[in-house]
Amino acid sequence: MLVTAYLAMVVLLVLCVGLELTARRLTPPQPTPSAMGTNPAFRRFQTVFLRGYLLALSADWLQGPYLYKLYRHYSFLESQIAILYVVGLASCVLFAPVASWLPQVLGRRRTCLLFCVAYSACCLTKLSRDYFVLILGRVLGGLSTSLLSTAFQAWYMHRHVDVHDFPKEWIPSTFTKAASWNHGLAMGAGLVANMLAEWLHLGPVAPFLLAVPCLGACGWVVLTDWGLEEKDGSLEGDNKKPLLGPSSSAPLARASARARFWRSCQEGLRCLLSDRRVMLLGGVQALFESVLYIFIFLWTPVLDPYGPPLGMVFSCLMAASMAGSLLYRLATSTRYRLQPGHLLCFSMLLAFFSFFMLIFSTAPGQPRPRESLLAFLLLELASGLYFPAVSFLHGRVIPEEKRAGVLVWFRLPLHLLACLGLLALHREVSGTGGGEGGSGTRHMFGGCAVLMLAALLAVVSLFTLGRNDVDLRLDGPKGEGDN
After folding, report:
1. C-alpha torsion 9→65→321→394, nearest 10
2. For labelling, which of 75, 332, 393, 461 has a CA lying 20 to 30 Å from the CA of 477?
3. What is the sign of the dihedral through the CA atoms of 2, 184, 319 and 447?
4. Cα(260)–Cα(179) distance, integer angstroms
5. Model pTM?
6. Which tens digits make up the pLDDT trace of 353-377?
7. Is the pLDDT of residue 402 over 90?
8. What b-and-e string marks burial along 278-313, b requiring 16 or more CB atoms within 10 Å of the CB?
């Protein structure tokens, strides 16, 4: 498995480079507004944001390869580890509303600093072998994950639009740059984690400890560079005082933020219930992404008994996801012009095939770890195709002003399905005396295959319903999700 992991990494890197070069050759460069390219204030602002945001993403990725391994290192059973993962998912659901309105109450920059503090505390809890301390760490991790997906974007959007008054058309360039760096950061994080945990023999807790100085550096950038950026801005920024005075501003701000959030949720629910296309898209997202959460839990116990370098395997998985994203870019280029709906169907079929392979490669008494690794890589390739395709459909199907509220409702069944799946695994493993890697894992993969078939049916229903809907095609009216 050691040789297999390194060979897979080489093959995937060559594939990614080949796809990138081909996509660049076949895809005409996106026209860049001349004002954006020659605007030093925008370039400086963009660099200041990316410096802090990419440090936060790096710290997050460092914790991916060895989380399950760390809990096993502390001698917890698979059923106990499943509960820890469930606590993390449940925390994401519970803290999602808080993460949405907290930047408006506490201030966007302060909320980003809170993320750095909370995630650092989460990492430091990994030093303890106490189960309840680790549960606390999962709660903090759920809060931090929710803040990462909202607070940094909220700060950028506020400064870009409300303070600097840059054109909204320039926003995608920043997040496109962040996305292009994200896969590279994920692969690099896996290699660094592997070096610390296995090459230097520092153990599975080492990547979590390295994440703490990354978060410290992120906090320093937010505190200094972002603070200077706010002072140089044309407005006061996050902490601008209203005319009512400091004594009455905080309660009013909290009440206003809560009202806006609940109003957004109500509008999102009405949109979800009144538009069947939105409901089907939500079903696709809930089914596919809940299965990915279950996969995140299961890949380590399936492969770890055979001694692969987990950090290297994690980098391979991220490289496969990057290959899927590049394949989507190539397939939707002007030469091939495949529709996102077709690629979404293909990603569902590929994911179903992956889980079908895993049912047989994880059979008790006849494990085939190399086939399991191949299936995991195909699943990540499918996810690389899935995310840009579903993002395109978000931009075409969901009205922009209701999108935030609708996505809140999308995430609710997503996390619920993932929690139920992990709880089912916990119950089956506990009922068989804690036998690790037995029939419980195989049955879970079978359940995931069924969910993928359901997601495929939902995709087919969506495009049958909108057979003549130009909004669902690349050559239809262009929306924000096209990028």
Report:
1. -170
2. 461
3. positive
4. 29
5. 0.87
6. 999 999 999 888 888 999 999 999 9
7. no
8. bbbbbbbbbbbbbbbbbbebbbbbbbbeeebbbbbb
Phi, psi (deg, nearest 5) at residue 244: -75, -15
At position 208, the amino acid (one-letter code) is F
Kindly report the three-state secondary structure assignment for every residue of the chain: CHHHHHHHHHHHHHHHHHHHHHHHHHCCCCCCCHHHHCCHHHHHHHHHHHHHHHHHHHHHHHCCCCHHHHHHHCCCCHHHHHHHHHHHHHHHHHHHHHHHHHHHHHCHHHHHHHHHHHHHHHHHHHHCCCHHHHHHHHHHHHHHHHHHCCHHHHHHHHHHHHHCCCCHHHHHHHHHHHHHHHHHHHHHHHHHHHHHHHHCCCCCCHHHHHHHHHHHHHHHHHHCHHHHHHHHCCCCCCCCCCCCCHHHHHHHHHHHHHHHHHHHHHHHHHHHHHCHHHHHHHHHHHHHHHHHHHHHHHHHHHHHHHCCCHHHHHHHHHHHHHHHHHHHHHHCCCCCCCCHHHHHHHHHHHHHHHHHHHHHHCCCCCCCHHHHHHHHHHHHHHHHHHHHHHHHHHHHHCCHHHHHHHHHHHHHHHHHHHHHHHHHHHHHHHHCCCCCCCHHHHHHHHHHHHHHHHHHHHHHHHHHHCCCCHHHCCCCCCCHHHC
Residues 6+ apart with CB under 8 A from 222: 52, 109, 112, 113, 116
Show the tokens assigned to 136: 């606390």
- CB distance 67 to 117 below 8 Å: no
Q: What is the pLDDT of residues 73-125, one digit of tens each?
A: 999 988 899 899 999 988 988 887 778 778 878 888 999 999 999 999 999 99
The residue with tokens 């195709």 is: 385
Measured CA distances, 438 to 153, 359, 432 (Å) = 42, 11, 9
Residue located via tokens 């895809």: 27
End-to-end CA distance of the chain: give it in Å, rounded: 38
